[in-house]
Amino acid sequence: MAFSPDGKLIASASSDNTVKLWQPDGKLVKTLKGHEDSVFGVAFSPDGKLIASASFDKTVKLWKPDGKLVKVLYGHEDKVVNVAFSPDGKLIASTSLDNTVKLWKPDGTLVTTLNGHEDSVFGVAFSPDGKLIASASNDQKVKLWKLDEEQEWHRDVVRGIAFSPDGKSIASASNDQKVKLWTADGTFKKTLQGHQDKVSAVAFSRDGKWMASASEDKTVKLWTADGTFKKTLQGHQDNVIAVTFSPNGKLIASASSDETVKLWKFDGTFVTTLEGHQDYVNAVAFSPDGKLIASASDDQTVKLWESDGTFQKTLQGHQNSLSSVAFSPDGNLLASASADNTVKLWKPDGTLVKTLKGHDYFVNAVAFSPDGKLIASASADNTVKLWTLNGIEVMTFKGHQQYVVDVAFSPDGKMLASASYDNTVKLWNFNQDQLLEQACNWVSDYLKNYPNVSDKERRLCGVEASATAFFLQAEQLAAEGNIDKAVSAFQKAVKRDSSFSLSSAAASLLRIGKQLIKDDKFDQAMLAYDQAQAWDTNLAISASDWNKLCWEGCINEQAKKVIAACDKAVELAPDNEWILNSRGLARALGTSKK
Predict the structure, then answer these.
(1) Is the separation of the CB atoms in 171 and 211 below 8 Å?
(2) 3-state secondary structure 158-175
(3) Strand partners, 92
(4) What's the Rg (C-alpha) of the chain?
């Protein structure tokens, strides 16, 4: 039983699986239902806005006083028997027959597990200053646990997140000037201190032996994987926003508000500065083969550089500042995240492949899954989204209370970590195979029939292009003037499905040929007309159609190219004076050009 802080409510826990709320005069106010076994402990938060209940169903449930269930805390392996809030309301302690005390944040994040008792733990209490926890156990011992600063969660915005290559550790970077190390299950390991200002990013080397952290104190710091400080890289004139290792570990690249990217050797020796951006550089990434460097900036561009710092090209297309950039594992794609609420996919040659739309606010970070089949994006709309390479949104992760600013896949691709302005790191589990199967079911018809889908995208879902896709692709190619390629695609369509015929292809070529004339593509129009008649000898191309090609070619100084069209027009209408004059003009212009 527990009183609310203002004394206006009493909460009682019961073996009937409920918590009941009462007024002090004995009037029942509300019954909280949801537990699947006896409720053994209950507590109010210091501000009275939350109620925590501990149950034999191995969970802690958080409720609002109006009875709304807010969160279920899973993690104990046996009956949960007691629960308590810290004096500042930032921690919840739960005890269990599994011999542990667990500490949680009110949003449900597991902070740490206190192991040490040799039997069931029944009682728990915080000291008035919140710096100590006392736990009472059936092992006939009371243990005191110190909550020093190193054991606490981040005290400010978490801006960066990274998995170690073996997936066993997670590093988080925060505005509280610290880097923290955690195990993959979220258990706290160590705090790395040394920066004098906000830490904006953290990265592991490919071999997992080193870490680098970037800070607004204008430095990059190097650490061993266990958190031992080794070296400070100094040289930037403003905040360092991002840092990454080259695949071979021989270079470190750092991006800064001073509008530059700097390259360093692993021993801390400065190599060169990449200059060219017109605003803050917010992100930097190496291609998988280490031959390219991509940088993303507030100037709304991605720039590509060779590994020696030589500028290569600029990718333009976003309508607002860029915050993140990443290469796909095979190096064939580049993803950029922007404050224009989109992610764009590019080929390294600068070709825009796809724009991913779906977020309601700035996209702050982007990452490819280790197998390259999925893309994760983190946004200021408080969500993380998962996408297929063809831009299909397959899942949205909701749970953060503020902007999500970074996201990372675990090395095995089964987990995501996200960092947020709500001071937390969240870990998300998902089944990638099920997600891809679901996405493929949604877009199967699209993949089969849409002409602009790549073979790689189709192979992702195990489908082949349909006759419809080939036919539509042929029409597109013909409209672009690629008649030879269009002919091949039409033939593939007919071969794949007998309901498509070369006669229907001929009709399309005739229609497209007329448009090519309007586009001043006279050679291509001639090819389209000739191929149409070759496929369908009964197809009527009128004298007027041939004469249109003849006349337009003449007045656009391409008489030589349309002589054959002029002759065909006269052959069909030998007595038409207008057509005869057109051919005469073509012959005269063609002769005068010799």
Answers:
(1) yes
(2) EEEEEECCCCCEEEEEEC
(3) 85, 104
(4) 34
Q: Tell me the mean pLDDT in the region 274-289.
A: 96
Listing DSSP states for 278-317 in one string gives SS-EEEEEE-TTSSEEEEEETTSEEEEEETTS-EEEEEE-
What's the pLDDT score for residue 450? 62
Q: Measure CA 497 to chain center.
A: 38
Q: Do residues 198 and 215 lie in contact, with contact meaning Cβ atoms separated by under 8 Å?
A: yes
Rounded Cα gap, residues 97 and 197, in angstroms: 43
Residues 271, 275, 278, CA angle at the centre, nearest 5°? 155
| Cβ neighbours, 10 Å, residue 115 | 11
Q: Using a cut of 0.70, tell me whether the model's pTM lies above it.
A: no
Cα end-to-end span (Å), the chain: 106
- State how far the alpha carbon of 28 is from the alpha carbons of 24, 32, 58, 375, in Å: 9, 11, 27, 51
Cα separation, 273 vs 308, in Å, equals: 10
Q: Is the dihedral of CA 357, 361, 367, 373 positive or negative?
A: negative
Scan for tokens 């610290």, then name that residue.
Answer: 178
List, for residues 85-141, the tens digit of each pLDDT value. Answer: 999 998 999 999 999 999 998 988 787 788 889 899 999 999 888 888 999 999 888
Element (H, E) at 248: none
Instruction: State the SS3 of 543-579.
Output: HHHHHHHHHHHHHCCCHHHHHHHHHHHHHHCCCCHHH
How far, in Å, CA of 591 to CA of 594, rounded? 5
d(CA 483, CA 384): 44
pLDDT at 151 over 80: no
Per-residue model confidence as pLDDT tens digits over 194-245: 999 999 999 999 999 999 999 999 999 999 999 999 999 999 999 999 999 9
Please report which helix (H) or strand (E) contains residue 242, including its range. Answer: strand 240-245
Sign of CA dihedral 433, 437, 439, 444: positive
Identity of the amino acid at 347: K
8 Å CB contact between 295 and 277: yes
Query: What is the sign, positive or negative, of the torsion defined by CA atoms of 75, 76, 77, 79?
Result: negative
Neighbours of 520 (CB within 10 A): 12
Q: What is the pLDDT of residue 150?
A: 47
Secondary structure of residue 434 in the 3-state scheme:
helix
> How many distinct helices (H) and strands (E) make up the chain?
9, 42
Give the Å distances, CA to CA, from 474 to 456, 465, 484.
19, 13, 10
pLDDT digits (tens, 9 = 90+) for 46-83: 999 999 999 999 999 999 999 999 999 988 989 999 99
Q: For residue 340, give the DSSP letter.
A: T
Residue 350 and residue 311 in contact, taking contact as beta carbons nearer than 8 Å: no
CA distance 562 to 517: 11
405 phi/psi in degrees, rounded to 5: -115, -10
